[in-house]
Write a structure and sequence with these properties.
The chain contains six helices and no strands. α5 (85-95) runs antiparallel to α6. It is mostly helical.
Length: 122
């Protein structure tokens, strides 16, 4: 998608589009995949496209930003505890009790991705 966008293809949001995934994964499996992707695939992705904003607002979780600044670094450091084992563990426990907002979903899964990214690659 990033390569197509760089070639000039317009990418649009289609709110009525539906995507189905017919495989069963536990919450722990999904969180583990996001963390692993942060350590491996995400590193390669931003290495190939360093000027792209892949996750707008991802800097709040510790992900790289194409336009870093002192404000973003300070806020990112202050929010680092939100991707700690304890915070994500609490989030995982609460997630099991029902559906939550997009913010909560993003924090749990992209926080796990950021936690993997900030660890040393395997």
């Amino acid at each position: 998608g990033l390569r197509l966008e760089k070639l000039g293809l317009t990418i649009r949001y289609a709110p009525g589009a539906t995507c189905y995934h017919y495989h069963f994964k536990t919450l722990n499996d999904r969180i583990s995949e996001f963390e692993k992707y942060g350590r491996t695939g995400y590193r390669r992705l931003i290495g190939k496209h360093p000027d792209s904003v892949i996750f707008p607002g991802g800097w709040k979780l510790g992900l790289p930003d194409s336009k870093p600044g002192i404000f973003k670094r300070i806020i990112g450091k202050c929010l680092a505890p939100l991707r700690s084992d304890a915070a994500l563990g609490i989030g995982k426990s609460l997630y099991r009790f029902g559906s939550f907002s997009d913010f909560y979903h993003d924090w749990l899964f992209y926080g796990s991705l950021a936690r993997g990214f900030t660890k040393e690659p395997e």
